[in-house]
């Protein structure tokens, strides 16, 4: 049984889909939901699934507090689902090829610093792209440059607002992220 930790900074709709998916799994369990935001809605979602939660500050993250917790909890895989802080190199090195992120665009497009959340969908809109999508990738020490595991695309209509694009992308994330995680384990 693999022990997974989810790191999230916000709403956690992806985290919820993952908790739901692995609820009765014989392969993996969500052993921890960790957040840098004490009021992140993802923590409420975790309670609903009786998954233990853990919060930490940016400074504590940088000082290795989260890494200690993940090791104490014997975590095998770290899942980033809308986690907005930079992961310290030491933490990445502690989970070689065992840390996965979801990015709400078709990398290498719309990746890198500052490209998160609504910024991504606004950039796709501004560029007039005909498609966008999701990228699930391993995490290395550079933003959004780890090995790509999976991508899925969706059409962008000329009438789509950034919010419309976000909804389409979220639908893809919810549909695929849990099973792609399972395939990696
Ligand atoms: C997702 O779009 C994910 O790709 C990005 O952050 C968003 C998190 O959404 N990295 P939610 O908190 O899971 O609803």
- Identify the quaternary structure here: single chain
The CATH topology of the largest domain:
Rossmann fold
The largest β sheet comes out as: 7 strands, mixed
Number of strand elements: 7
Intertermini distance: 10 Å
Compressed to H and E, one letter per element, the order equals EHEHEHHEHEHEEH
Strand order of the largest sheet: 3-2-1-4-5-6-7
Question: Any idea what the CATH architecture of the largest domain is?
Answer: 3-Layer(aba) Sandwich
CATH class of the largest domain: Alpha Beta
Q: Which structural class should the secondary elements be placed in?
A: alpha/beta
Précis, in short:
37% of the residues lie in helices and 23% in strands. It has 185 residues and is α/β, with parallel strands linked by helices.
Mind explaining what this structure looks like?
The chain has seven helices and seven strands; from the N terminus they run βαβαβααβαβαββα. The chain has 185 residues and is of the alpha/beta class. It has two domains: 1-96, Formyl transferase, N-terminal domain (Rossmann fold), CATH 3.40.50.170; 101-185, Formyl transferase, N-terminal domain (Rossmann fold). A seven-stranded mixed β-sheet has the order 3-2-1-4-5-6-7, with helices on one face. Strand 4, helix 5 and strand 5 (99-103) form a beta-alpha-beta unit. Helix 1 runs parallel beside helix 7 (162-184) and helix 6 packs across helix 7 (162-184). The longest helix has 23 residues, at 162-184. The protein is globular, with a radius of gyration of 16 Å. The protein starts with a strand and ends with a helix. It binds 5-O-phosphono-beta-D-ribofuranosylamine (GRF).
């Amino acid at each position: 049984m693999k022990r997974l930790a989810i790191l999230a900074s916000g709403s956690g709709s992806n985290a919820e889909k993952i908790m739901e998916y692995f609820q009765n799994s014989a392969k993996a369990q969500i052993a921890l939901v960790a957040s840098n935001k004490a009021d992140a809605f993802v923590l409420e979602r975790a309670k609903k699934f009786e998954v233990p939660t853990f919060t930490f500050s940016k400074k504590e993250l940088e000082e290795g507090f989260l890494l200690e917790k993940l090791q104490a909890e014997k975590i095998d895989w770290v899942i980033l689902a809308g986690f907005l802080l930079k992961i310290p190199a030491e933490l990445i090195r502690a989970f070689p090829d065992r840390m996965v992120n979801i990015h709400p665009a078709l990398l290498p497009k719309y990746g890198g610093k500052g490209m998160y959340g609504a910024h991504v969908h606004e950039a796709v809109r501004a560029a007039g792209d005909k498609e966008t999508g999701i990228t699930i990738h391993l995490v290395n020490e550079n933003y959004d440059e780890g090995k790509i595991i999976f991508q899925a695309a969706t059409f962008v209509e000329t009438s789509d607002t950034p919010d419309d694009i976000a909804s389409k992308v979220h639908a893809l994330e919810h549909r695929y992220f849990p099973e792609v995680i399972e395939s990696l384990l």
